[in-house]
Design a protein that fits this description.
- It is a single chain.
- This protein has three domains: 62 residues, no CATH class; 136 residues, Alpha-Beta Plaits; 61 residues, Roll (SH3 type barrels).
- It is 33% helix and 31% strand.
- The strands form three sheets. Strands 1, 2, 3, 4, 5, 8 and 9 form a seven-stranded mixed β-sheet that branches.
């Protein structure tokens, strides 16, 4: 075989590998294909941002995989997420299953909202009604979690909890912005919630008059970026928008601001 043929085969092989990698990424993030198309048309800013996000997501996912245990999701009573975390942490210690239950997380983001004419930082749970748990699933650990006050069930078939992919967990735990020079990562606050996103200095709430109840929208930022939602409630005085999102097969209300969504035409 000639050197020219060898070179052609090598180019074809590299192209095939890149195509397979892109297909795998787009399978997990369909909107990645949109960013790639935008780059081809010359709009590289969105493509660059998406590429950086995916790079950070891959790195964060690799770090998660090094940790012991698997990730599971437990469903809680409404507004009981923090109580469940506190109760489960205490029960794991008291019942001596800390070696199996490694981490309990309530991921949140902090955003700026306008209230009474003033800006105020508020917290939003990224998974309302759910708590993430990294654990070794055995009879003892399962029983401790399942019998924790406020817990209704594991996500999955009863008695057969479903393992959550590390990549999916990363989307909820990875900080919204890249680490600073000081290496800051997501931090736990005094209530044990994992703070994933902090408000940007120039971020300002916008009025919601462009949207109506029933509008189908796409979420543009945060852990639910690229997810479709349906607006269920609008508070014109604060600009708050409540939308319904399908999370783990259940329709879940989430609070959003107008700058976080766009209409689906």
């Amino acid at each position: 075989m000639s050197d020219e043929q060898d070179s052609n085969l090598e180019v074809e092989y590299v192209a095939e590998q890149e195509a397979e990698a892109n297909e795998a990424v787009n399978a997990d993030n369909p909107d990645g294909a949109v960013a790639d198309a935008a780059a081809a048309l010359g709009d590289t800013s969105e493509a660059d941002a998406d590429s950086e996000y995916r790079r950070r997501l891959r790195e964060f996912t690799r770090e998660l995989k090094k940790q012991p245990g698997q990730w599971y999701i437990i469903q809680t009573y409404a507004s009981y997420e923090n109580k469940v975390k506190t109760n489960l942490d205490m029960r794991a210690q008291t019942l001596e299953v800390e070696e199996y239950i490694h981490e309990v997380v309530v991921p949140i983001e902090q955003v700026v909202e306008m209230k009474d004419g003033k800006k105020k930082i508020v917290k939003r749970k990224l998974l309302p009604g759910y708590v993430l748990v990294r654990m070794e699933l055995n009879d003892r650990a399962w029983s401790v979690v399942r019998d924790t006050p406020g817990v209704t069930s594991f996500v999955g078939n009863e008695g057969n909890a479903t393992v959550v992919r590390h990549r999916d967990v990363s989307k909820f735990l990875m900080p919204k912005t890249a680490p600073t020079e000081e290496g800051q990562q997501a931090q736990a606050n005094s209530e044990g919630e994992m703070v994933i996103a902090m408000p940007e200095e120039q971020e300002a709430p916008k009025f919601a008059h462009d949207f109506q109840v029933g509008d189908a929208v796409t979420i543009l930022s945060g852990a639910l970026a690229s997810v479709s939602a349906s607006i269920s409630e609008i508070d014109p005085s604060t600009g708050k928008i409540q939308a319904l999102v399908s999370i783990f097969g259940r329709e879940t209300p989430v609070e959003l601001t107008p700058d976080q969504i766009e209409k689906i035409n």
